[in-house]
């Protein structure tokens, strides 16, 4: 989500959809196509996937650091 403003300001997701990301697609779906429900559902999915990735990486990091302390 942090890269959205850079892409939007520089290219707007173009040429075509070459530099588009999921947040840009959700934005365009919500505000340019007026499909607010679908765009908000995509945003929630992005949030859930991000949460799973962060929790998984934290779990892996914790497991590796815990093994290092025992040795």
**How many DSSP H or I helices?**
3
Helical/strand content category: mainly alpha
Compute the separation of the termini in Å. 38 Å
Q: What's the helical proportion of residues?
A: over 70%
**Principal-axes shape call:** elongated
Instruction: Evaluate the radius of gyration.
Output: 17 Å
Fraction of residues in β-strands: under 5%
| Count of discrete domains | 1
**How is the main sheet built?**
none
Work out the number of β strands.
0
Averaged pLDDT, please?
84
| H/E element order | HHH
Uncertain segments are none
Structure overview:
The protein has one domain. Helix content is 75%, strand content 0%. It has three helices and no strands. α2 runs antiparallel to α3 (36-70). The termini are far apart. The relative contact order is 0.10.
Could you list some keywords that capture this structure?
71 residues, mainly alpha
Secondary-structure map:
Elements: H1 4-10, H2 22-32, H3 36-70
Helix pairs in contact: 2-3
Short summary of the structure?
This protein has 71 residues and is mainly α. The protein has helices spanning 4-10, 22-32, 36-70.
């Amino acid at each position: 989500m942090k890269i959205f403003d850079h892409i939007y300001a520089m290219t707007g997701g173009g040429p075509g959809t070459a530099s588009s990301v999921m947040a840009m697609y959700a934005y365009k779906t919500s505000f340019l196509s007026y499909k607010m429900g679908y765009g908000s559902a995509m945003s929630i999915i992005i949030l859930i996937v991000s949460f799973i990735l962060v929790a998984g990486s934290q779990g892996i990091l914790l497991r590796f650091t815990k093994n290092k302390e025992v040795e």
